[in-house]
Amino acid sequence: MADAQLGGFGKKLKDKASQKINQRVDARVDKQLDKTLDNIEGKNRDTVSRPASPVADNVKQEAATSTGAFSSYDFIPGEKILYAEDFSQEAAGELPLHWNTNGSGEVVIPAGENSHWLRLHNPFMYLSAGKAVLPENFTAEFDLLLQLKNNGWMYPSLSVGLLSTSQEPAGSNSWLKTIDTYEAVKATLYPEENNNSRVLLESFAETKEYFKSDARQYAALQQFYGRPVHVAIQVQKARFRMWINAEKIFDIPRALACQYALNQLFFKVGQTNYAENQYGIYITNIRLATGVPDTRHKLLKEGRFITTGILFAAGSAVIRPESTPVLKEIAGILQENENLRFRITGHTSSEGDNQYNLGLSARRAAAVKTALVSDWGIAADRLDTAGMGEKEPIADNKSKEGKSANRRVEFVKL
To answer: pTM for the full model?
Structure first.
């Protein structure tokens, strides 16, 4: 009887184990099927610093992302904003107001993103709405998203550059055909597979080639297909520097002729056999600025430092990694002067709900403190935080440049 009962128990145990194994296998199969279907539908695109939703932003404190791969990044944006564009106020499905092109382009929200981007098509030229004459020293930044999937053809190239229109209108149709009448500089990305992507830098003066680099291999570009990357440019008279995310791509001392002042930002997409629905090239968060911030003097002598160089994901307090150089510089000054104490105050533009902006600015100030404490070892009791929301603008909230200037972080000596 005991043997029979034991045998029955063994059979039940075996059946139960078999059932459990089947359940786990089914669960894994279902999970993999869901993942595959999500990829097909575009739901699982990996992104960098994806903004949290307003609901999630209210519920939890976001982690500050400042170091990591960007620990050696040394680009610091200009202090005064000359032109800013994030397309948030532009009509979806249309070319942005005051931009010009010889083809088509439209503002969209790409799959996996929750902000507005301008989609570019081939083989067209795009002139921005910026009209400011750029000084000898300035910076230019934008976010780039390449949604590319290999189908055997050559991907379209993408050029980003600046040109001089001299005394002629910056948005004139003539600049859609030629960029070298006066002076221009452009960097061209050639995306490829098998780690064969390349980058080329060229400049022109009065219709003649002034400088042309060797085509630099840039294998890392392929890793970013489907993910936003940050492109930064710094011009110091004849010197041209360019970064993609944390990597410095060019540092050319005599790249520009410096005969004419540059005043027009442009993008150009090259030819491809891919249909428009088979690839995506998108740009957003464009910013031109001038003036190198004198962080040390302002913190130590004036006791007040205002920066727009600490960037956050849209609508959240997640610090974007390209903010690392500004945070690192502030941390270095605090490390050298152990008696300094500061209040960190967050500010926003007037977009959105006033009460939400108040909370958002406070969370951003707290995120900056967290980064300085956790990443650079600054004592927490040396830093207070506050959020003012949209209550203390320093520029006109009616312009995009003014709104960008108002989204700032202030350090005030205590």
So the answer is: 0.82
Fold of the domain built from segment(s) 295-413: 60s Ribosomal Protein L30; Chain: A; (3.30.1330)
Task: Give the per-residue pLDDT at 30.
Answer: 42
Q: Phi and psi of 242, rounded to 5°?
A: -145, 135
Q: Are 176 and 100 in contact (CB under 8 A)?
A: yes
The single residue listed with the structure tokens 């003539």 is 174
At 288, list the tokens: 């031109």
Q: Is 10 helix (H, G, I), strand (E, B) or coil?
A: helix
Q: What are phi and psi of 219, to 5 degrees?
A: -60, -30
Q: What is the mean pLDDT of the chain?
A: 87
In angstroms, the CA 186 to CA 201 distance is 6
Say whether domain 77-290 belongs to CATH 2.130.10.10. Answer: no
**What is the model's pLDDT at position 14?**
46
CA distance 174 to 210: 21
Gap between the Cα atoms of 223 and 280, Å rounded: 16
Which pair of structure tokens corresponds to residue 202?
A: 């060229």
Return all residues near 243 (Cβ < 8 A) that are at least 6 apart. Answer: 73, 75, 230, 231, 232, 233, 249
Q: Which residues pair with 82 in a beta bridge?
A: none
- Asked whether residue 307 carries a pLDDT value surpassing 70, the answer given is yes
**Domains of the chain, residue spans:** 1-44, 77-290, 295-413
Distance CA 83, CA 365 (A): 25
pLDDT of the residue at 280: 97
Give the confidence band of 90 by pLDDT, cuts at 50, 70, 90. very high
Judge whether 200 and 216 are in contact, CB under 8 Å.
yes
Rounded average pLDDT over 54-68: 41
Nearest-angstrom CA–CA distance, 374 and 368: 10
Residue 379: CA count within 13 A, CB half-sphere: 9
